[in-house]
Amino acid sequence: MAFHDSSSAAPASSSVGLRGNGAAHSAPRRDALLGSLRLRYGQALERGDREAQLEIYREAVYLGVQPEELSRPAAA
User: Per-residue pLDDT for 12 more than 50?
Assistant: First the structure.
């Protein structure tokens, strides 16, 4: 998986919907992205891959996800 340099990323207002408010489609998108982050973070933890954990953490922070949300179980 490739990670993009933040200098070439789209502005936060047009990002994936985690930072912005009000878009009707943002809740399902946020849920999907958070699920993906949690899955990949959990896999990195199981492997003991500290570098991958750090990259996923950075991605989460960029997307506006609080770090504790990575290890919190998904809401039913």
Answer: no
